[in-house]
Specification:
Layout lengths: L1 H13 L6 H7 L1 H5 L16 H8 L5 E7 L16 E9 L5 E11 L3 E14 L5 E4 L2 H14 L5 E7 L2 E7 L4 E9 L5 E13 L12 E4 L4 E7 L2 E6 L2 E9 L4
Antiparallel strand pairs: 1-2, 2-3, 3-4, 4-5, 6-7, 6-13, 7-8, 8-9, 9-10, 10-11, 11-12, 12-13
C-alpha cells in the first residue's frame, strides 16, 4: 500500500512539468519561433533561429512580440464559414509608442490540420521612420533595407560632409524629417558661391526600384532636390549623369 502511495504521489508531482516540449511549442508562438531556422525561409542567410534573428533586428527600445493568426485571410463574411484557414506565425517589432515597425509572417499549417509542411515565408511589412508601410519580398531584402536606415540612425544631429578642393558641402540631419544643407563652391573666376538652407527635408525611398541606381534617400531644399545611395557608412550623391561625390560621416567637434 505504501509503495502504491509513493507511485501515485510521484505521478501527481510529475504532471505539471511533464508537458512535452512539442506541446509547449504548439501553444507558444515564441517557443515555436525558436525552432524555425531562417535558412528554411531564405537560403542566403546564415543559420540561426527566426527568434534570434528577429530579436537581433530590434533596437533596445523596441519590443518583439509573437502570435499565431490566420495570415489575414478572414473576411468576416459568410464565405468564411467552414473554411480551413492557414495558420501563420507572426513576429512583430513594436516601437516604444506601440506602433508596428516590422512584421514577418510565416505559414506553418492550417487551423484544422495543425502544423503541417515546411515553414513558408509570407508577408513582410516594414514601416520606415516617418514613412508609409512597404512590403518586402524576402529576408535578405529586408536586411538590405534596414542597413540603409541605420546609416543615418536616430542619434541626431548627424553630420555628413563632402570636402573637395573648390567645393565643400555639409549636411546636418537634425531630426527624422529635417536637415540643414550647406554648399560652398569656388567658381572658375575665383568667385565664391554659397548656398544655405536650414529648412530642408529628407526621407527614405520605399525600397529598391528597377533603375540604374537603387536610391536610398532624398533631400529637398527650397530650390533643389538631391538623391543619394548608401555605400557602407557613406552617402553617394547621384543624378542622371551618375555619381557626384561621396559624403562621409563626421563627428561634431566644432
Amino acid at each position: 500500500m505504501k509503495n502504491q502511495f509513493i507511485v501515485l504521489l510521484s505521478l501527481f508531482l510529475c504532471l505539471p512539468p511533464c508537458v512535452s516540449a512539442e506541446q509547449n511549442m504548439e501553444h507558444s508562438p515564441e517557443e515555436y519561433s525558436k525552432h524555425i531556422d531562417v535558412t528554411e525561409l531564405d537560403a542566403t542567410l546564415p543559420s540561426t533561429s527566426l527568434h534570434d534573428w528577429l530579436n537581433g533586428l530590434a533596437k533596445a527600445s523596441e519590443r518583439v512580440a509573437w502570435e499565431f493568426n490566420d495570415c489575414g485571410e478572414q473576411t468576416g463574411s459568410e464565405a468564411d464559414r467552414g473554411r480551413d484557414f492557414p495558420k501563420c506565425l507572426e513576429g512583430i517589432i513594436e516601437s516604444p509608442s506601440h506602433e508596428k515597425a516590422l512584421s514577418i509572417q510565416v505559414y506553418v499549417g492550417t487551423w484544422q490540420r495543425g502544423f503541417v509542411g515546411k515553414p513558408k515565408l509570407g508577408l513582410i511589412s516594414y514601416t520606415k521612420p516617418g514613412q508609409s508601410t512597404v512590403e518586402v519580398q524576402d529576408l535578405s531584402s529586408l536586411n538590405a533595407l534596414l542597413s540603409t536606415d541605420t546609416v543615418i540612425g536616430n542619434d541626431y544631429p548627424v553630420y555628413y560632409e563632402r570636402a573637395r578642393e573648390k567645393d565643400y558641402s555639409l549636411i546636418i540631419f537634425t531630426s527624422s524629417k529635417t536637415c540643414i544643407y550647406l554648399n560652398r563652391l569656388t567658381r572658375k573666376d575665383n568667385t565664391t558661391w554659397f548656398y544655405y538652407d536650414d529648412e530642408a527635408t529628407w526621407g527614405y525611398y520605399p525600397g529598391d526600384k528597377d533603375q540604374t541606381f537603387h536610391l536610398s534617400l532624398w533631400i529637398k531644399t527650397t530650390k533643389f532636390r538631391f538623391d543619394y545611395v548608401t555605400k557602407g557608412s557613406m552617402l553617394v550623391e547621384v543624378d542622371k549623369a551618375g555619381p557626384q561625390g561621396q559624403y562621409v560621416r563626421v563627428k561634431n567637434n566644432r
